[in-house]
Amino acid sequence: MIYTMSVSGLYVADDVDGHLNVVTAVVWVLTGTDGTYTATTTGTDNIGPAHLENFVPYEDLTEELVLTWIPNYGTALSPFFTRYMQYQAGIWADILEQKGATIALAPTLPWS
Predict the structure, then answer these.
(1) Cα–Cα distance between 39 and 69 in angstroms, integer?
(2) CA quadruple 75, 81, 87, 88: dihedral sign
(3) What Cα–Cα distance (Å) separates residue 16 from each residue in 21, 51, 52, 55, 76?
(4) Cα torsion at 93, 38, 5, 16 (round to 10°)?
(5) Looking at residue 72, what is its pLDDT?
(6) In this structure, is the dihedral angle defined by the CA atoms of residues 49, 51, 54 and 56, taken in order, positive or negative?
(7) What is the full per-residue pLDDT of the chain (112 aa) written as tens digits?
(8) Alpha carbon of 109 to those of 54, 97, 103, 112: distances in Å?
(9) Phi-psi region of 16 (alpha: psi -120 to 50; beta: other; left: phi over 0)
(10) Which of 41, 45, 75, 112 gives the lowest tally of CB atoms within 10 Å of its CB?
């Protein structure tokens, strides 16, 4: 499986302490593919004011930079990393279903 993260939208405050068009939240899309089948999930993460220390005007933002603002995206032991792994698992399950698998709760546990 190959997973990619992209930005599909930005929430913006018009003025924050003299900075114009300040990003306050990132709307992202996580896509997974096995080469044949593809599944996606989306989410929104509020971001703190830390990016104001090295403020970049809205018109100069890049997707790569904005992705770094998602709290601890891809960093092990961070809250988002745990959610990210859950999102990947959901995408994997979606792809299994696209391939024809039926996913259901097992009626018994193997050690019961």
Answers:
(1) 24
(2) positive
(3) 8, 12, 9, 11, 31
(4) -90
(5) 56
(6) negative
(7) 898 899 999 999 999 989 999 999 999 999 999 999 999 999 888 887 767 888 899 999 999 999 888 765 555 555 566 777 888 888 989 999 999 988 888 999 889 8
(8) 53, 22, 15, 5
(9) beta
(10) 112
Going from the C-alpha of 64 to that of each of 67, 96, 107, the distances in angstroms are 5, 30, 45
Nearest to 85 by CA among 1, 11, 9: 1
Q: CA-to-CA distance for 19 and 37, rounded, in angstroms?
A: 43
Which residues pair with residue 39 across a beta bridge?
32
Please tell me whether residue 21 adopts helix, strand or coil conformation: strand
Say which amino acid occupies 94: D
